[in-house]
Amino acid sequence: MRLELIQPFINAADGVLGQMLHSPAEVREVAMQEDVYRRKGVAASVVIRGDLEGCIIFDLEPEAALRVAEVLAGAEAGSSEQIARETVCELANMVVGNAVTLLNNQGFRFKVFPPVLHTADDGGCAGTSQSEALALCFETSCGRVHMNIALDYSRRETAEAATVRP
Amino acid sequence: MRENESALRNRDGQPVRYLVVDDSVFARKNLGRMLQMIGGEVAGEAGHGLEAIQQYDRLRPDIVFMDVTMPEMEGIEAAERIIRHHPEAQIVMVASVGDHENVSEALRKGVRHFLQKPTNPELLSEVIHHLLRGEEAPARATVEKAGAL
């Protein structure tokens, strides 16, 4: 787990949540996590592959998901669970998109897969090898937003760097 | 944002018509809601690039707002195809990933502007007014915004 890779995601979540919800988001809890991730509500995960590899899970407690959907898509849409799920996926898309923009501009190249609903009650992202993650909780005006970031340099990248820079 | 936005009209004096292209229904609704606040009408929506091309041919909207990453056909390719057949098309990319490579590629292919999500009504309004006046939108400002978060 490399903290220099994590910071862009924290900054992006802070910026996107603050702008979308029109009020600041505060980081309340930060912890390293080695156990499998336990979903809190409506969650979406985004897989990254390339120079960096890993997975980011974006998870809103059920009430928070509905309230965010209401704020962003209008009151009438907010009552739909489908819209709440779409909202969480789009929020994940925006947060990860903003973070990877910063990392891309630093020279990292990787593919970001579209967000998918994270339906397992516990478990990480399918197909990712990271066992350690940083778990964060943001307090927002709509409720708690959880983010679980498991990201590291790819093994190929690490091996190439070792060859080039013995 | 400016007042009297509901009177936004194209060069023919008709209400401005938009095509909104995004694979996320939520993103389309959210953008559509902002566009209605600004003025004009959302003439159509599409969930991927191929559908966007068909919808453009059918609707001939004044301005297209297009996501980049979508199934079937991605946004930059769809934009390039639309512009090849309709050089007058005014297409604005609206994407989560706004790195220099994506932005440069889109602008090279004839896209008029690149906005990074999340966008807001003020910025959208500014871009729409620039396009309606036939001016180059201040692309640099939004590229800088893309790196600001």
How does this model look, in words?
The complex is a heterodimer of chains A (166) and B (149). Chain A contains 4 helices and 7 strands, in the order αβββααββββα. In chain A, 40% of the residues lie in helices and 30% in strands. Chain B has 149 residues and is an alpha/beta fold. Helix content of chain B is 44%, strand content 16%. Chain B is built from 6 helices and 5 strands, in the order E-H-E-H-E-H-E-H-E-H-H. In chain B, helix 3 links the parallel strand 3 and strand 4. In chain B, helix 2 packs parallel to helix 3. The radius of gyration of chain B is 14 Å and the shape is globular. The C terminus of chain B is likely disordered. At the A-B interface, helix 1, helix 2 and helix 3 of A face helix 1 of B.
Secondary structure topology:
The complex is a heterodimer of chains A (166) and B (149).
Chain A: H1 3-21, E1 26-33, E2 42-50, E3 52-60, H2 62-73, H3 81-105, E4 110-112, E5 116-117, E6 133-140, E7 143-153, H4 155-164
Antiparallel strand pairs in A: 1-6, 2-3, 2-4, 2-5, 3-7, 6-7
Helix pairs in contact in A: 1-3, 2-3
Chain B: E1 17-21, H1 25-38, E2 41-46, H2 49-59, E3 63-66, H3 75-85, E4 91-95, H4 100-108, E5 113-116, H5 121-132, H6 139-146
Parallel strand pairs in B: 1-2, 1-3, 3-4, 4-5
Helix pairs in contact in B: 2-3
